[in-house]
Amino acid sequence: YKKNVEIVTNYYNSSIDHYNYCINIFKKINQDNLKIKDIYMTADEDFLMELDKLENSFDSTIYYLQNYQTAIKNYPIKEHKQKYQLYPIETYRLQGLTSSDFLKDKIHLWDYGTWVKDQKSILNTDIKKLRKDADKANRDLDKHIKNITNSNKYKIDFKKYKVDEKLVNRIGKYDYNSLLVSLFRYKEAKQDFLSKSKDPVNDPTDTSNIFTVLQKAKYYDELVKSKNFADSMNTDFLTRINSYDVNKYKQFFENNYSSETGLKNSSQNETSFLNSELDNAFNNFKNYLLRDLLYENRIVTLPYRKNKVELKIVNQIFPEVKPGKFYITAFNKDNTGNYYATGFIKQRTPGVSAFVLKTTKLDNIEWLKIYPIGKTSNDFGSFIQATENGCEMLVTSIKGTEIKNHIFRMGKDGKQISKKEVKTGLIPRYFNYDEINENYLIAFKGLNLDEFEDLSDNLIINEYNGTTLTEKWATILNLKGNLVDIIKMNESFFVFTNFTKFASGSNIISSKAGVQSNETNSLLFILNNLGKVQKTVPYISKSSFFIARALKINSNSINLVGFNQPLMSIKTATKEQFYKPVYLLVNTSGEIYYDNRKN
Questions:
Q1: Whole-angstrom Cα distance, residue 166 to residue 42?
Q2: Closest of 499, 524, 536 to residue 514, by C-alpha
Q3: What is the pLDDT of residues 130-170, one digit of tens each?
Q4: Cβ 437 vs Cβ 472: under 8 Å
Q5: In the structure, how many helices (H) and strands (E) does the chain have?
Q6: 3 state SS of 573
């Protein structure tokens, strides 16, 4: 009897011990994993061993309890017939944590066995396939990124890989706001940026002039946005790297990045990589811009009578001109693809004569008119603008220190509609005709064709009536520097300049780069529609830089492109003398919202 009682007691106590061991294991699982989904994402070999222990111990609990029930039948206790009932664990962290009373007739047991089987089933099916698919998605992303990066081609149809949204949703089912998905989103953004950087617009070998400087500026604006988005995705990923989330994909990150530290270093290196790729693109823009600024871009060469006219801008260096040759100083394309061009031709000694021509697209010259202003003066077309009814041409005539400016209005058929003299006897640096309001806006500075000889002269901006040429307003700016461009933004005029010093009464603004005439920064004047300066916006740097072009991207953005070096004469410089490009984007308040010098 005593021996049999010991057997019954051992079965009873062993069942209790194993069950308490189950509770302890399950409690530790709950302590280590705040959510059930954490179990699925962090399960490793050690955790699977814990599940095996829980499963085996629960099996032992049932084994000893059932043996206890069988053995005690030989020693019935009056009105005491013990049974056990299994309760499913359906709510993680709420169920499966409480002990059971093995003295009661009905022993309530948490069904750890089924719970373990359910978790193993999910781990061996959903999670296993999820990790396999995630590995493949990552390999596919890396493959496409590598293909784009290594390609020497510039095209718009690069194959790009996008992670299947079904996979993203499957990951989200077990890991909401997943670190892995954040990595995929960055790689997709990186892929898009790299693909955009290989657009034909950015092809450094292209000399076809298919794309205008404005088209290129708009492209680089979009490229900056694409790069900034990739940056933001990378920053989001980097800031979210932590041991808790990395542990969910421990094997994945170890295989690809060695460690959490390696992962962080890789993400930080991506910033340098993106900056480098964008810098390469800016260098391509720089090279195109230099071809344009140094007058290397030739649109086409067209026959005219027994001569040829090369649609390519030249410098106004009159002593070096060849008799009978047409030199283009400005051209402008109309809405139908025809070009209006102006320049000068040497037909007499001394002096040169201005001319204006119109092409039929790029096929032939439709008409050409020559206009000598004086008998011995150097007359040339300084600006030309295509209009709905023809063109507006500003002709400058220089004889010694005497300068005259005339505006010619030409019809589409080449007939001269009007010719009026502008009374300001200075060199024009900007010209624009507003067809809607019928006004001319002209900026003057100095008496020399080379603006570098006139850096200390006042900048004068005038608006004239388009019919009578009477002056509507004049603004005089005491600026040591040069004019870059004037852009109409809504009802304001944005006057972009390079400067070393500006003075207006007691208000003095100086370049921080130095005191030499070429140690420039940039200064924006915002004028209202009456020519009054409403705001000055200096772009200050301790390093010299200058703006070469101001390009209106849209109604909200202006692109300023230039060079990070002292001011240079575009007319006398060579490509080799230009360094790193400056690329700025400013808003309607004149404030910089992108500056490549900060990369």
A1: 21
A2: 499
A3: 999 999 999 999 999 999 999 999 999 999 999 999 999 99
A4: no
A5: 11, 24
A6: coil
pTM metric for this prediction: 0.84
Tokens linked to 517: 């005439």
Could you give phi then psi for residue 99, rounded to 5 degrees? Answer: -80, 170
Are 528 and 491 in contact, with CB atoms under 8 Å apart?
yes
C-alpha to C-alpha distance for 275 and 598, rounded to whole angstroms: 10
Domain map (residue ranges) of the chain: 2-110, 150-293
Mean pLDDT for 569-587 is 88
- Picking from 167, 221, 157, 228, the residue whose alpha carbon sits closest to that of residue 195 is 157
Q: In 10 A of CB 226, how many CB atoms?
A: 20
Q: How confident is the model at residue 209 (pLDDT cuts 50, 70, 90)?
A: confident
Angle at CA 13, nearest 5°, toward 8 and 15? 100
State how far Cα 531 lies from the chain centre.
34
Q: Name the amino acid, one letter, at 218.
A: K
pLDDT tens-place string over residues 293-334: 876 667 789 999 989 999 988 877 777 889 999 999 999 999
- Measured CA to CA in angstroms, residue 245 lies from 127, 220, 231, 330 at distances of 16, 36, 21, 61
Which residue type, as a one-letter code, is found at position 418?
S
Residue 421, helix vs strand vs coil = strand
> Mind spelling out the 3-state secondary structure of 365-416?
EEEEEEECCCCCCEEEEEEEEECCCEEEEEEEEEECCEEEEEEEEEECCCCE
Interacting residues of 398 by C-beta distance below 8 A, sequence separation 6+? 377, 378, 379, 449
Residue 200: cis peptide before it, omega within 30 degrees of 0: no
**Segment among 233-237, 253-257, 288-292 with least mean pLDDT:** 288-292
pLDDT digits (tens, 9 = 90+) for 11-21: 999 999 999 99
Q: Which of 373, 298, 306, 366 is nearest to 328 (CA)?
A: 298
Cα angle: 16, vertex 19, 24; to 5 degrees: 125
Please name the residues in contact with 518: beta carbons below 8 A apart, sequence gap of 6 or more.
544, 566, 567, 568
Q: How far is CA 486 from the centre of its chain?
A: 25
Integer Cα distance of 229 and 208 in angstroms: 31
